[in-house]
Design goal:
Elements: H1 2-13, E1 21-22, E2 29-31, E3 87-91, E4 94-98, E5 115-124, H2 125-136, E6 139-142, E7 149-158, H3 159-169, E8 172-177, E9 180-185, H4 186-206, E10 210-215, H5 221-229, E11 237-241, E12 246-251, H6 253-266, E13 272-300, E14 316-319, E15 342-346, E16 356-363, E17 369-388, E18 391-395, E19 400-414, E20 417-435, E21 440-449, E22 451-457, E23 463-466, E24 469-477, E25 482-498, E26 513-532, H7 535-543
Parallel strand pairs: 6-9
Antiparallel strand pairs: 1-2, 3-4, 4-8, 5-7, 8-9, 10-12, 11-12, 13-14, 13-15, 13-17, 13-18, 13-26, 16-17, 19-20, 20-21, 21-24, 22-23, 25-26
Helix pairs in contact: 2-3
Length: 545
């Protein structure tokens, strides 16, 4: 009861102002309010018996002093907006922090000060700043325009965040210069910034200009000239010496230093990339054909001494009618070889260097009955593999191309006469690489593989062009091989040439049909391998044992 009465009397004695500064967790208070014997106020620290651990970023120790409060009735409460980070600028060689409202997408300021509890009512802002100065172990200087009273209640708040919130509530800003914080109204600080900017502009108008030659080693001086011009003052000039690839810049010393820093960052060695493409073409073909020819002749007549003995028909003759002048007769020997009289003439295209055939002839003693049979078979198998490997080196973001081939003359007939046009049939690689910061290579690639086809010709005998193209954009790791793409074609077929009805009969249908089977395959693959040949890699390779 005595403690409560003493506390109540203390509140009445100090005009209803209560100060509570305590550490989290219900520990004993760190700061206390003490009365001075003189009519004025005095601020003296009181130590706490125990203090809990502070935040990881706190570097101000476990204890701090307190500030006394002046007498007087409480003023109307001042609103305290909630913890948006202040904006920072520069003025007088320090760091200017002007409170600004929170904006979406802007990262908030991270406060690392010691966490405290504050409870003030109608407190003079100078005493609040003195208290925060002791807590944060910093020096705070206020201008004459800083005045007023604040009413706040905060719990578990870093002292630097509390300072920002209090200054924002009173439309004040701060300028940090090392361990010193200067507090002034925002209008005054903004005016100081404007004065500094005007002072710098005025100095640029009166300072003497200087001319410097800035050498460009890797970049084009004309390409950098436009970027340098943005950094110059109205009195600045820039020109290019094409012979030495140098920039001639005239301006004040400060801007010249900015130009040199810009050129130093832009004029870096460009990576060199070696691009190797592998074009693989594989072709396989298979053909099998089975053919049969058979026929013969039979006679019942007086010539062969075997007439029928009838009045009609007295003579009978029968023979195959599928023989012509182009009919192959290889393998048939004997009297009837000249006229085999094939009834079924479905041979396979055999001959020198392809296939085989077997002939059989059967005949009677008097030649009245003859039977001719010829079997032919053909099978071809072929495989072709073509490997093309164009390779080229180029700089980063520079397009390069390499081509090899022939120019085929094509005759064109028009009203003006016959004109000859050359059509290119080339193996070509066009690529534009870009080296990323991760060491990968982005490439715009165009690979062509064109060749003349003299088998398929035009009306005038001109060959056609077999075109194979691949165009894409890829991201490939340095030194790795990637497949751009490929084309796979397969043409398979099975066909019969046969005598109707008889060719469909089982077993004996073989003697009435020609069977042809084919299977053609063609594959086209393109591989790409980029290698970054930078100066750092060449140096490492030279130092390697």
């Amino acid at each position: 009861m005595r403690r409560r009465a003493g506390r109540a009397a203390g509140r009445e004695r100090w005009g209803g102002v209560a100060l509570l500064t305590a550490v989290l967790g219900g520990a004993p208070p760190v700061f206390g309010l003490q009365a001075a014997p003189a009519p004025g106020l005095s601020v003296s620290p009181t130590e706490s018996a125990s203090t809990p651990p502070t935040s990881a970023g706190d570097a101000y120790g476990p204890s701090g002093p307190a500030a006394g409060m002046p007498p007087g009735g409480p003023p109307p409460a001042a609103g305290v907006p909630g913890g948006a980070p202040p904006a920072s600028g520069a003025s007088g060689g320090g760091s200017l922090i002007l409170p600004q409202p929170a904006r979406p997408g802007v990262p908030k300021k991270r406060y690392i000060g010691r966490r405290i509890d504050l409870d003030f009512r109608g407190a003079d802002i100078h005493n609040i700043l003195r208290l925060l100065s002791d807590v944060g172990q910093v020096n705070i200087v206020t201008s004459d325009d800083v005045k007023g009273e604040v009413t706040i209640k905060m719990k578990n708040v870093p002292w630097d965040q509390a300072l920002d919130v209090i200054l924002r509530a009173k439309l004040l800003g701060q300028v940090r210069e090392g361990n010193l914080i200067r507090v002034a109204p925002m209008a005054v600080l903004e005016k100081e910034i404007e004065q500094d900017i005007a002072r710098q502009r005025a100095m640029n108008d009166v300072l003497p200009t200087e001319t410097r030659l800035i050498g460009i080693s890797y970049a084009d001086a004309h390409a950098i000239q436009d970027r340098v011009r943005d950094l110059l003052s109205p009195r600045g000039r820039v020109s290019v010496d094409d012979r030495t690839n140098q920039l001639i810049v005239s301006d004040v010393t400060r801007n010249l230093q900015l130009v040199e820093d810009l050129v130093r960052n832009l004029d870096t060695q460009t990576s060199q990339v070696i691009i190797e493409a592998r074009i693989v073409e594989a072709t396989s073909n298979f053909t099998r054909q089975l053919g049969v020819q058979w026929g013969g002749s039979g006679f019942r007549d007086a010539t062969h001494a075997n007439p029928t003995g009838l009045a009609f028909p007295y003579n009978i003759a029968a023979g195959g009618g599928a023989t012509d002048a182009l009919t192959p007769r290889g393998g048939l020997n004997g009297v009837g070889a000249a006229s085999p009289d094939f009834a079924v003439n479905l041979p396979a295209p055999v001959g020198t260097g392809s296939g085989g055939a077997l002939g059989l002839m059967l005949g009677s003693i008097n030649g009245a009955f003859n039977l001719n049979l010829r079997l032919s078979a053909l099978e071809t198998t072929g495989q072709v593999r073509i490997l093309s490997s164009p390779r080229i080196s180029t700089l980063d973001n520079v397009e390069a191309s390499i081509n090899q081939g022939v120019s085929i003359p094509i005759s064109i007939v028009s009203a003006q006469g016959i004109q000859t046009v050359f059509v290119e049939a080339n193996l070509g690689l066009t690529v534009k690489p870009h080296v990323t910061h991760e060491g990968t290579v982005v490439m715009t690639i165009h690979v062509t593989r064109n060749e003349p086809d003299f088998v398929n010709t035009g009306a005038r005998g001109d060959p056609t062009i077999r075109r194979k193209d691949a165009k894409t954009v890829m991201l490939v790791q340095d030194g790795e091989t990637a497949v751009i793409g490929g084309i796979y074609q397969r043409n398979s077929g099975l066909s019969y040439s046969k005598v109707p009805f008889f060719g469909d009969l089982p077993f004996i249908g073989f003697f009435f049909r020609n069977r042809k089977e084919n299977d053609d395959r063609e594959e086209f693959l393109v591989f790409i391998t980029p290698r970054i040949a930078s100066a750092a890699k060449r140096s490492a390779a030279a130092l390697a044992p």
